[in-house]
Amino acid sequence: MNDFVFQNCTKVIFGKNTETQAGKECAAIGIKVLLHYGGGSVKKSGLYDRVVSSLKAEGMQIVELAGVQPNPRLSLVHEGIELCRREKVDLILALGGGSVIDSAKAIGAGFYYQGDVWDFYDYKCAPEKMLPLGVILTIPAAGSETSPSSVITDEKQQLKRGLTAMCLRPAFCILNPELTFTLPANQTANGISDMLAHTMERYFSPTKNVALTDRLLEAMMKTIIDQAAIVMRKGDDYAARAEIMLCGMVCHNDSLDIGRQTDWASHGIEHEISAITDVAHGAGLSIVFPAWMKYVHRTDIPRFVQFAVRVFGIEQDFENPERTALDGISALEKFYQSIELPVRLSQISLSASRIEEMAKKATWNDSVTLGGFKKLNRKDVSAILQLAV
Amino acid sequence: MNDFVFQNCTKVIFGKNTETQAGKECAAIGIKVLLHYGGGSVKKSGLYDRVVSSLKAEGMQIVELAGVQPNPRLSLVHEGIELCRREKVDLILALGGGSVIDSAKAIGAGFYYQGDVWDFYDYKCAPEKMLPLGVILTIPAAGSETSPSSVITDEKQQLKRGLTAMCLRPAFCILNPELTFTLPANQTANGISDMLAHTMERYFSPTKNVALTDRLLEAMMKTIIDQAAIVMRKGDDYAARAEIMLCGMVCHNDSLDIGRQTDWASHGIEHEISAITDVAHGAGLSIVFPAWMKYVHRTDIPRFVQFAVRVFGIEQDFENPERTALDGISALEKFYQSIELPVRLSQISLSASRIEEMAKKATWNDSVTLGGFKKLNRKDVSAILQLAV
Known about the structure:
Chain A is α/β, with parallel strands linked by helices. Chain A has 15 helices and eight strands.
């Protein structure tokens, strides 16, 4: 186990009708709130009205900024920073999924910074402060509701960049599983794929002697896989929607990987797929992950055997551990297929001719390596994508 | 799953030599610190000197209060409150196990209260504020390093009372597994029994649809049981000591029982055993728990089958679930015996003639019931203790 420091102060409010507590939570922080959201769905569902009522009941003053898109844009972030300064808001309330939350984080961090907020995403300097942020989550996937991370796209430079800084954790998040009943099947599946990836990227670690966190992460993977079958069949099953919403938050709040090195190579490789195809992040991950596993499994066969046996309950072949390891990877592929996610580039009409370009971009022109379980250079990334053809 | 609110802001600093960071952490909070500890062991081990050096290096002013005993006393708490007020301390640093931490919590909460701090433990009112508290843990067991709880004994009235209030969570805790290398085997085993009980008391819940937390708690129990065998054989095994220290903290930080009702009946019954015999809390629990299970298992046989199969890997008897349930209880007893803990009252020379008296006290003269998995009255408690004869 590695030495570590862990702290996560986000207050989690979970359950039915909890969005009606937004006003009280916000009023405990300040008076003027920026309500930040995407488009029409929160209005159509009535969520917007319930939240505004709750804020008004507490005498909150509301400033609004709508229009967040998937892959949230830097230009809207700039607009939000201007607006928050002009209106002197005390806090931000994000109403939506990961994109809205990440956009709100960028606005809240940029609020206190004299330069361009993109400097943070360009790793020129690190944010030390963020406007207090509340979240009402509508899509369980990114885990941004308790994580210290934000991903923003500079649409002019065509750059998508992730930032992690402890000050980016929200002050509170409100999770009502009922808000996810109407999520379309493909968005549900994409979210499940994202949270499963967040868990596996913590699980496939080079750190030894991590007995507790291994088992906690296995518990998470088994639960996501079990419950996925239920929510895909019956979108308004409260119990299963609650489990999936809980999983999306817990798997990314950093409590399950204390003391272990993580490996985010699959997320890095996937970003290049969604950058050139506009495929959903979760669907890109279901293509990358099995290919990554096939390429790296010999680095640590016992770990892949443990994954196969403990997560998928595969009967171990004691004389041929690699067979068991490969059976685990097949089981993961079958799981993705069972929730109608793609597992090959051809399924999203991405030609193998683009592989070299993606491998180059993912490794910043072969100048950096990805991952920690096995360090990957341009050639490795290219080979992994070839396994996904 | 039940609705819930969860927040835990304690900063956890884990690893080798981390006690040398105490000065820096304290200096970030204030200037004058009360150093609170038990007796000679922290001086003999050199820990005291290292911590004082670290505090002095940061220019901290140190006030001291030693002498905390197991079952920490109200009189010392009163003395600590006086001292903190007179010296105008900014924070408390607890150096020890659960007793020292719980005593520090009582002092820190009493500091802000005009009446007698015992009022909190007498449930006349609830504390809303505590002096900031830092912890350097030497005994993994009680979980008080991140929990919102404190147990204090009023030696004059011979009352031992537990208090839970969110303001009682420490600001930071420092966990260095090396500090536990010299813990005697019986203290190690008692601590393991306490953390296993904290996990089981969350696991045996009447709440349905708790798939994720069930699996997380099972992960915790399996790890405690696995790693116990190693630390009992080899006290200076860093990897296993680290797992046990991590388990003691995580199992009681309230992250594993979000959304589920818990059942603290076994802790309640055990308090009566240790009150009249002075047996260690962990050794009392290893007697009470199997007896409690034998008495309540018919309330929910599938839950006990799940415990047997998932925690102890027992082959399920599908035609006779109760047999599997009982096999799980036997396996738990054998585990306790394997780390040399008692499983019967006779092993601690406690006569069956005292059972009625204990059952009466545990249920406040039959005026309250204990537990949530199955509500227990005086007669039930008495029957449970009879099963432990």
